[in-house]
Amino acid sequence: MTLVTAYILLGVIFVVAGLALVSGSQPVSSMLRAFPRSMGAAVVLFGGGAVWFLWIVSQLGESDLAGFPRNWMLGIFGVTALLSFKYLRDLLAVRGLAVVMLLSARALLDIGYMKLPYSFVLACTCYILVVLGIWWGAAPYVFRNWSTWALEKRPRTLAIGTIILVIGIANLAAACFAPSSAT
Q1: Residue 165 near residue 172, CB atoms below 8 Å
Q2: Cβ of 91: how many Cβ atoms within 10 Å?
Q3: What is the DSSP letter of 89?
Q4: What does R_g of the chain's alpha carbons equal in angstroms?
Q5: I need a labelling partner for 183 at 20 to 30 A (CA). Which of 1, 99, 113, 156 fits?
Q6: In the chain, what are the domain boundaries?
Q7: In Å, how far are 66, 71, 106 from 60, measured between CA atoms?
Q8: What is the Cα–Cα distance from 45 to 1, expressed in whole angstroms?
Q9: C-beta atoms surrounding 82 within 10 Å
Q10: Could you give the CA distance from residue 132 to residue 71 in angstroms, rounded to a whole number?
C-alpha cells in the first residue's frame, strides 16, 4: 500500500464517520448507543482483531518471540480470544474497536515510516488512534460514557462529528501532496 492509498483510505473512513455524526440521523444515534454491547460488532471487530493479531504473531521472527515456542503463543492468545466471548462479553465490541484501531495504527505508521514531511498528517492521525485505542481498550466504559454524553445534546454530536470530519478532510488533502511513487 502506498502513502497516498493510506491517506485516502483513512480519510474516507473519517469523513464517512464524521458525516454520519454531523447528519444527526436517528439510525446513527441508535447504532452508536447500541454499539458497546453489540455482539455482532464484537464478533466482527474483536474476532477480526484477534485473527489479525494471531497473524502478526505467526509472522514474528525468532528474536521477537524471546525463546517462547510460536505454537504456544498462538494457542494461548487464540484461546484467550475465544474465552473472551464467553467470560468478557460486556463491552467486547469496544475492546474489539480498540484492538483494530491499534493494529491499524501500527500498519499505517509502517507505511509512513521515513517519509516525513509527507507522512506527518498520517502520523498525527495514527497517534490519535493509538491514544484512544489504549484508553478505550483499558477502560471500555469510557467509550460508552463518552458516546452517551456526546449523543445527549445535538451541539456535542455536531462538534465531535465536525472534528472527525476535519481529520478526514486533512488526510484526503494530505494525499494530494504525498508523492504517489512512495511505497
Answers
A1: no
A2: 20
A3: -
A4: 18
A5: 99
A6: 3-177
A7: 10, 12, 14
A8: 22
A9: 11
A10: 31
pLDDT tens-place string over residues 17-45? 999 999 988 999 999 999 999 999 999 99
**Residue 66 backbone class (left: φ over 0; alpha: ψ -120 to 50; beta: rest):** left
3 closest CA partner among 98, 115, 133: 115
Contact 97, 132 (CB under 8 A): no
Lookup: cell for 182: 512512495
Q: Which residues contact 175 (CB under 8 A, 6 or more apart)?
A: 4, 7, 8, 11
**Helix locations, 66-153, DSSP H:** 70-87, 92-112, 120-138, 140-152
Q: How many residues does the chain have?
A: 183
All cell numbers assigned to 62: 525468532
User: What pLDDT, in 10s, does the model give residues 100-139?
Assistant: 999 999 999 999 988 888 999 999 999 999 999 999 999 9
Residue 168 to residue 77: CA distance in whole angstroms: 33
Alpha carbon 15 to chain centroid, angstroms? 14
C-alpha cell at 14: 473519517
